[in-house]
Amino acid sequence: MKKIMSMLTVVLVVFSTSVQAQKNTNKIAPRIIILATGGTIAGSGESATKAAYTAGKVPVDDLLNAVPDIHKYGKISGEQVAQIGSQDMNVVTWLKLAKRINQIFKDNLADAVVVTHGTDTQGETAYFLDLTVMSDKPVVLVGAMRPSTAMSQDGNRNLLDAVMVAADPKSQGKGVIVAMDEKVFDARDVTKTSTTNLETFRSTNFGPIGLIYDGKVSYYYQSLRNPSKKFDVSKLNELPKVEIVYGYADASPETVSNLSTIPGLKGLVYAGMGNGNFGEPVGKALANASKNGIVVCRSARASAGRITLENEVNDAELGFVVADDLNPQKARVLLMLSLTETADRTKIQQNFFEY
Ligand code: SIN
User: Fold this and answer.
1) At which of 219, 249, 266 does a domain end?
2) Distance 118 CA to ligand 1 centre (A)
3) What is the pTM of this model?
4) Is the distance from the beta carbon of residue 120 to the nearest atom of ligand 1 less than 6 Å?
5) Of 114, 241, 279, 298, whose CA is between 20 and 30 Å from 311?
6) Domain-ending residue, one of 172, 188, 219
7) What is the 146 CA–ligand 1 centroid distance (Å)?
8) 234, 227, 238: which is closest to 336 by C-alpha?
């Protein structure tokens, strides 16, 4: 009997030690899923010293194998969601990404998600996910300006930093973030500013929310524009059609009137001069589009600042909404999502001041 009791005690001690070890492992080893979509971070070129390359060539397993140190930060696994240059990013892939991330968190398959993505449209994807992912868990987007085969490639360092940021508990509750070039940006504010420089991402109005150095992230502030109410895309396979038209001196009104005839067009974002302004002929075409049921949103072609209501334009009379400080491509994202819920321009305007 004594022998049985002492054997039982040993079994219990071993069991509780392994449960504790498992708990400890979970604590120090968050589960992180890398969702790969392509881009230059997965780009491949013929020469390490020439600029030419093709984006989205390297599969996710090879990306992860190239940075073995990521496994220091957690239990890492990868999934290939798309394999494209981000100039080919589209609504269908956005919806697929948002649904997959929501499913991962709903099924408790991961504590954080990292999305590898081309830099060209990374800001738009980040903002789309920010508006549609229903979790406080970290979602970190990352990319690179040089292909994986280049001598000066930045993808491995950026990926390692992004995984570290995703694993850090401080990254929770910040909405979707972008980790690039030793900085962390809020999805809403970040934009690509240089066609070829490594230091291309900026938040032109507010700056980065955090800085990365030597394997650590320090946060300095957090956006207040992170409403808990997100857009539910779980049952959607497409979004209302919204296009963007660019403003410039002496623009022809046909830039707007021709665009307005696109079948099924529901919204038009106007990237205006200064405070979202337009010349008279374009103004008339925009007013016409608005009268015909197309929601017209005034934004700015300038890289910083915001659009204010009723400044030089009688927005209420014309039925226009303004983008606040969103750039035209992000205003398009919010307008498409808003139009999935309402065509009421007052409510849509409210969204631009809240999201
Ligand atoms: C892309 O956006 O896919 C190409 C450019 C890049 O990733 O830097």
Assistant:
1) 219
2) 4
3) 0.91
4) yes
5) 241
6) 219
7) 9
8) 238
Residues in a beta bridge with 218: 211
| Tokens encoding 31 | 């589960």
Verify that 72 and 198 share a domain, yes or no.
Answer: yes
196 C-alpha vs ligand 1 centroid, how far in Å? 10
Structural domains in the chain (count): 2
* Ligand 1 atom at minimum distance from 200 CA: 8
Q: What is the pLDDT tens value at each position of the chain, 355 positions in all?
A: 555 555 555 444 444 444 444 444 456 699 999 999 999 999 988 888 888 888 888 999 999 999 999 999 999 999 999 999 999 999 999 999 999 999 999 999 999 999 999 999 999 999 999 999 999 999 999 999 999 999 999 999 999 999 999 999 999 999 999 999 999 999 999 999 999 999 999 999 999 999 999 999 999 999 999 888 999 999 999 999 999 999 999 999 999 999 999 999 999 999 999 999 999 999 999 999 999 999 999 999 999 999 999 999 999 999 999 999 999 999 999 999 999 999 999 999 999 999 9
User: Which residues have C-beta within 8 Å of that of residue 304, sequence separation ≥ 6?
Assistant: 204, 205
* Ligand 1 contacts CB of residue 55 (under 6 A): yes
- Answer yes or no: are the C-beta atoms of 75 and 30 closer than 8 Å: yes
308 among known catalytic residues = no
Q: Buried b / exposed e across 313-349, counting CB within 10 Å, b at 16+? A: bebeeebbbbbbbbbbbbbbbbbbbbbeeeeebeebb
